[in-house]
């Protein structure tokens, strides 16, 4: 009975906040959420009735049969068949009623992936990758985006979630349908939303130092715009940097890294970014870190740790030393061979100059969808 009360409590506390990006399950943007909501309300209402019924009966009995009100003990008897039938029948009816509600909701909410838009989700410490398996990039490979998930409105969307390391939890409260992301397990379920907008998602399973910094955005677009955006992503090829531009230097460092000045000390050079990250339409095909194909279009950085201008401002500190700004981040520092922890052991990072870091940032910012396919357009 406590769970529905907690649900009610969080809804009361946060239900009145602004719709956009609130973390409230009371701000329902999907039929899924509404279905769960109806069940919760029934469970809460019945719990309240039972609570007051039992409390009343208890106080009534205590009051009525107080010793000082009676000269002799009240009538003593054993068993009351009529009362016992009621005491069994009423809970049975309540349980059957709630079971019917539950089974009905399960039937409605069960995945029907054949007719649903499919999105594959990979959770890792401490970021997300969203892949659109029904679309293959013209330049080869999948169409995927790190930490910002697109979904169409007003139609079933089949999400399949898995983890690349420990157990994480996929949860976008406004959309509903929390699921655990577990290594070597694919879980598919169906969600939907009837409202275009941006919704906040968080990891909901304690998973390490930056569990709280493992966020994402769900960007729900109307069907036509969703289709156009996916088409643009499919056709996307990372731009060729102009010769002599900072982007060109950034591209080179991204793809090849930098040779170590002292061959015995790798920290005097830099490993490539491409070993860990993928950029659609380039040789970069790494699968260790999030997909960076549309990095320049993204508005968040560090798996939703920063947004907007703050995300812009944090890009350089991020590249210089991400574990220093996000606890537990697994990307090595790229400045001054700073140390970071790998499996509890201090490990040297790499050494890029300020100019080189700026060049990598410039290259990342150039990885942009065309203006008309910017899924953040119209979002304040
Ligand atoms: Cu991933 Cu918490």
Uncertain residue ranges: 11-20
Helix vs. strand class: alpha+beta
CATH superfamily of the largest domain: Cupredoxins -  blue copper proteins
Share of residues in helices: 25-40%
So, CATH architecture of the largest domain?
Answer: Sandwich
Main sheet overview: 5 strands, mixed
Bound molecules: dinuclear copper ion
> Outline, from the CA principal axes?
elongated
Calculate the mean pLDDT score and round it: 89
**What is the count of DSSP helices, taking H or I runs of 4+ residues?**
7
Distance between the termini: 40 Å
How many DSSP E strands? Answer: 14
Give Rg in angstroms: 28 Å
Tell me the strand percentage band.
Answer: 15-25%
| Order of strands across the main sheet | 3-2-1-5-8
Number of domains: 3
Query: What letter string, H or E per element, gives the SSE order?
Result: HHHEEEEEEEEEEHHEEHEEH
If you consult CATH, what is the topology of the largest domain? Immunoglobulin-like
Keywords: Copper, Electron transport, Heme, Iron, Membrane, Metal-binding, Respiratory chain, Translocase, Transmembrane, Transmembrane helix, Transport
Domain Cytochrome oxidase subunit II copper A binding: 114-232
Enzyme class: translocase
GO molecular function, one term: cytochrome-c oxidase activity
């Amino acid at each position: 009975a406590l769970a529905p009360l907690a649900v009610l409590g969080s809804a009361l506390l946060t239900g009145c906040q602004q719709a956009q990006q609130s973390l409230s399950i009371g701000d329902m943007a999907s039929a899924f959420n509404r279905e769960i909501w109806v069940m919760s309300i029934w469970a809460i209402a019945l719990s309240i009735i039972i609570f007051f019924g039992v409390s009343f009966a208890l106080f009534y009995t205590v009051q009525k049969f107080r010793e000082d009100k009676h000269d002799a003990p009240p009538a003593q008897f054993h068993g009351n068949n009529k009362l016992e039938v009621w005491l069994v029948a009423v809970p049975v009816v309540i349980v059957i009623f709630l079971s019917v509600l539950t089974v009905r909701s399960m039937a409605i909410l069960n995945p029907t992936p054949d007719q649903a838009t499919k999105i594959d989700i990979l959770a890792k410490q401490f970021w997300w990758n969203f892949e659109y398996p029904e679309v293959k990039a013209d330049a080869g490979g999948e169409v995927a985006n790190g930490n910002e998930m697109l979904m169409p409105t007003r139609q079933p969307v089949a999400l399949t979630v898995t983890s690349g390391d420990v157990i994480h939890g996929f949860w976008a409260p406004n959309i509903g349908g929390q699921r655990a992301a577990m290594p070597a397990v694919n879980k598919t379920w169906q969600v939907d939303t009837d409202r275009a907008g941006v919704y906040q998602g968080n990891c909901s399973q304690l998973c390490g130092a930056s569990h709280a910094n493992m966020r994402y955005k769900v960007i729900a677009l109307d069907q036509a715009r969703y289709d156009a955006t996916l088409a643009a992503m499919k056709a996307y090829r990372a731009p060729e940097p102009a010769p002599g531009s900072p982007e060109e230097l950034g591209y080179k460092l991204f793809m090849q890294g930098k040779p170590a000045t002292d061959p015995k000390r790798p920290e005097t050079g830099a490993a490539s970014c491409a070993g860990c990250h993928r950029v659609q339409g380039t040789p970069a095909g790494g699968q260790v870190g999030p997909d960076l194909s549309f990095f320049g279009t993204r508005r968040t950085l560090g798996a939703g740790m920063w947004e907007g201008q703050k995300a812009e401002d944090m890009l350089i500190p991020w590249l210089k030393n991400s574990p220093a700004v996000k606890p537990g981040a697994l990307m090595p520092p790229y400045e001054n061979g700073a140390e970071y922890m790998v499996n509890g052991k201090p490990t040297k990072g790499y050494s890029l100059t300020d100019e080189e870091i700026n060049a990598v940032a410039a290259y990342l910012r150039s990885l942009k969808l065309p203006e008309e396919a910017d899924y953040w357009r119209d979002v304040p």
